[in-house]
Specification:
CATH topology of one domain: Pnp Oxidase, Chain A
Number of helices: 5
Order of helices and strands: HEEEEHEEHHHEEE
CATH architecture of one domain: Roll
Number of strands: 9
Largest sheet: 9 strands, antiparallel
Radius of gyration: 20 Å
């Protein structure tokens, strides 16, 4: 990330105001453009990082950072351990929100929708291209569970590495992807005097998107 900004300064303040006419009618396309813009123009190491917000089985809100690994007309895809805290939360309440914030561009996107697992084939395909160390970690980590020591975790990783020495590592059955199918997408762009731009897209009953401007 870049250094701190001077008080009152905004890196994205020189951008053109948002308007429904200037933006495509498909918010997924707008998001893709913004993500590519963040990759090209920001100093962020992970412009695809988002806060994933869920409800625990007990009903408590919870958030954590995940990495977006795919986006298309069907939704937004990320991967995790199905037995993790977020996996259990999504099993009980299959709805979530994702929040992206690109500080350098003074832009934010908020997404809400239903969540489902991607197909086993999609998970296999993605797992196959992960770094080998990450593949080992997916087997070794009992994500979100208590662990006695760092040594125990590293010992499990060493056992997995030895088990699959010289061969491909298969995807663990407890690890895979989720797709958030959006019902709402809000685009926020900073502007001078805190008169920010906010455009909210809601998916209608027949799958079409309707947009409206919100007060900042």
């Amino acid at each position: 990330m870049s250094g701190p900004l001077k008080k009152g300064s905004k890196k994205g303040a020189g951008q053109k105001p948002l308007s429904r006419e200037a933006l495509a009618t498909d918010p997924i396309g707008i998001f893709t453009d913004w993500l590519e813009d963040a990759r090209a123009r920001s100093d962020m190491e992970y412009p695809n990082a988002a806060c994933l917000s869920t409800l625990s089985p007990e009903g408590w809100p919870d958030g954590r950072i995940v990495l977006l690994k795919g986006v298309d007309g069907e939704g937004f895809v990320f991967y995790t351990n199905y037995r993790s805290a977020k996996g259990k939360a999504l099993g009980e309440h299959p709805r979530a929100a994702m929040t992206f914030y690109w500080h350098d561009l003074d832009r934010q996107v908020r997404i809400r929708g239903e969540v489902e697992r991607v197909s086993a084939q999609e998970s296999d395909d993605y797992f196959r291209i992960r770094p080998r160390g990450s593949q080992i970690g997916a087997w070794a980590s009992l994500q979100s569970e208590p662990v006695r020591s760092r040594d125990d975790l590293e010992s499990r990783a060493a056992e997995i590495e030895e088990r699959y020495s010289g061969e491909d590592i298969p995807r663990p059955p407890h690890w895979g992807g989720y797709r958030l199918r959006p019902t709402e997408i809000e685009f926020w762009q900073g502007a001078p005097n805190r008169l920010h731009d906010r455009l909210l897209y809601r998916r209608g009953a027949h799958g079409s998107w309707e947009a409206q401007r919100l007060d900042p």
